[in-house]
Amino acid sequence: MTIPGFGESVDITDAEYGQFQQLIYKIAGISMSDSKRTLLVGRLGRRLRFHKLSSYGDYYKLVTSPAGKQELQQMVDLLTTNETYFFREPRHFEFLTQTVLAKHPAGQPFNVWSGASSTGEEIYTLSMVLADKLGVKGNWSVLGSDLSTQVLAVAEKGEYVTERTRGLPPAYMSKYCQAGTGDKQGTFTINADLRQHTKFRQINLNQSIPEIGKFHVIFLRNVMIYFDNPTKRQVVSKLISKLHPGGYLIIGHSESLNGLTEQLTVVQPTIYKLA
């Protein structure tokens, strides 16, 4: 249904918001509180305008219809994309360098998984740290995964506008990035010799984890704050199954695994080790 003179904002009813709460929980395990109502309206309102729909109920019918699979992914992308930047929560990277890599046998493979890689800043931060410690041609790899295909496409390209250098030390910028020229002026690209160590894959942590191997360190930061406790337990159990013995799971500073598992021990707040 098309709204005459369409373009005005559309209100969402309690029942409609409840439908989207249940849908995003079913898909991604995200518990979207009532406080996120404004965020949902702000992000999905543009999709109603794009499709010229008169209500969020109509949009819900679209994304849950057999013909709406592509729009459903668009919805997921909009509702699960979070802020990220280079070297966010820097103590984690200091721990990686000073404790984990310092004890890792020279020449042995070292694999890291970023389970919510978003637009790639975390992936390339890890790559810079590993290249510095293990060498650009060292035996290391970083897997980046996310539920959103949109952010994964950005991450895999490894190209950012210059304003996105927040947190990136100038020395790393000059060493591991290439400034754009010509029609690429105002951008920078992660060097190819770093990107060759990276892989990207869409993975839904709320579903079975595909065969991706084992990792020495898994980063899953600022994600579980959106999960309820049953979902957290399931996700943590899946992550543990992908850790090497003695591997580390690193979460965000506003998160805790207290009461969720007995398989991990606390090394320091937000950093856990598998026995």
Q: Would you give an account of this structure?
A:
The chain is an alpha/beta fold. The protein has 2 domains: 14-80, Orthogonal Bundle (Chemotaxis Receptor Methyltransferase Cher, domain 1); 91-274, Vaccinia Virus protein VP39 (Rossmann fold, 3-Layer(aba) Sandwich). It has helices at residues 14-28, 37-51, 56-63, 69-80, 91-103, 121-134, 149-157, 170-176, 192-195, 229-240; strands at residues 110-114, 140-146, 159-161, 177-179, 187-190, 198-202, 215-220, 243-251, 264-268, 271-274. The strands form 2 sheets. Strands 6-2-1-7-8-10-9 form a 7-stranded mixed beta sheet, with helices on one face. A 3-stranded antiparallel beta sheet has the order 3-5-4. Helix 5 (91-103) runs parallel beside helix 6. The radius of gyration is 20 Å and the shape is globular.
Helix content: 25-40%
Residue share in β-strands = 15-25%
Low-confidence parts lasting 5 or more residues at pLDDT below 50? 1-7
CATH architecture of the largest domain: 3-Layer(aba) Sandwich
Radius of gyration: 20 Å
The span between the termini is 58 Å
CATH class of the largest domain equals Alpha Beta
Q: Major sheet, described briefly? A: 7 strands, mixed
Identify the CATH homologous superfamily of the largest domain: Vaccinia Virus protein VP39
Query: If helices are DSSP runs of H or I spanning 4 or more residues, what is the number of helices?
Result: 10
Oligomer: single chain
What's the average pLDDT?
93
Widest β-sheet, arrangement of strands: 6-2-1-7-8-10-9
CATH topology of the largest domain: Rossmann fold
State the order of secondary-structure elements, H for helix, E for strand. HHHHHEHEHEHEEHEEHEEE
> Strand tally, please?
10
The structure class reads alpha/beta
